[in-house]
């Protein structure tokens, strides 16, 4: 009986499956604890395709660790006053329990024993968060204020993606926003938002 002709591989679909599998693995265990075979098995393909499509495990990690800000429109584009809220939305979306692969920054945090990963983590925090927030501050200690708010955003990511703390993991962005916006206003020296009647009570 003649063999059925092999179906042509859909490269785009295979690359997407490998990236999703890699992101999930890297955000769970970091770079060193993740093998090429693990990623390929999760994606349901031959490990050789990782090298064919990405060149190396290192290159695959680089792409898997990109944030939404790297891959799409940056959340700091647009109205300056909305920057903190858009950064919070981006952090919450990527760190949401059950989201595809978890937050890319989690992969860098878990892999921070590698100098190149520490450098990339520093660069992504500076470029995607600190730099955007600094532009909103007209005070002498603008960098410190921007970094403090960035540290809180990173803490939200860690709590949801890695620690899975119950209250924060289950909270939606609308529940967190009133607290976040008030603290952001204090740190950035901007007018405090008007609290909605249905939002959390002011401490």
UniProtKB/TrEMBL annotation:
One of its GO terms (molecular function) is transcription cis-regulatory region binding. Gene3D superfamilies: Tetracycline Repressor, domain 2. The keyword DNA-binding applies. Residues 12-72 form the HTH tetR-type domain. Residues 35-54 bind DNA. Transmembrane segments: none annotated. InterPro entries: Homeodomain-like_sf, HTH-type_TetR-like_transc_reg, HTH_TetR, Tet_transcr_reg_TetR-rel_C_sf, TetR_C_16. Signal peptide: none annotated. It comes from the Bacteria. Coiled coil: none annotated. Keywords: DNA-binding, Transcription, Transcription regulation. This is TetR family transcriptional regulator. The lineage of its organism: Bacteria, Bacillati, Actinomycetota, Actinomycetes, Kitasatosporales.
């Amino acid at each position: 009986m003649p063999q059925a002709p092999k179906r042509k591989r859909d490269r785009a679909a295979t690359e997407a499956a490998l990236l999703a599998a890699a992101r999930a693995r890297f955000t769970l265990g970091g770079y060193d604890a993740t093998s090429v075979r693990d990623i390929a098995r999760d994606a349901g393909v031959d490990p050789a395709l990782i090298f064919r499509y990405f060149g190396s495990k290192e290159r695959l990690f680089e792409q898997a660790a990109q944030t939404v800000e790297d891959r799409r429109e940056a959340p700091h584009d647009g109205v300056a006053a909305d920057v903190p809220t858009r950064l919070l939305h981006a952090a919450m979306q990527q760190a949401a329990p059950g989201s595809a692969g978890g937050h890319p920054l989690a992969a860098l945090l878990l892999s921070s024993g590698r100098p190149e990963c520490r450098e990339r983590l520093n660069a992504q925090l500076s470029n995607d968060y600190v730099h955007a927030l600094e532009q909103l501050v007209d005070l002498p200690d603008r960098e410190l204020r921007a970094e403090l708010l960035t540290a809180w955003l990173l803490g939200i990511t860690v709590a949801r993606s890695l620690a899975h703390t119950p209250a924060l993991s289950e909270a939606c962005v609308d529940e967190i926003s009133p607290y976040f916006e008030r603290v952001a206003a204090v740190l950035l020296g901007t007018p405090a938002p008007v609290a909605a009647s249905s939002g959390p009570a002011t401490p």
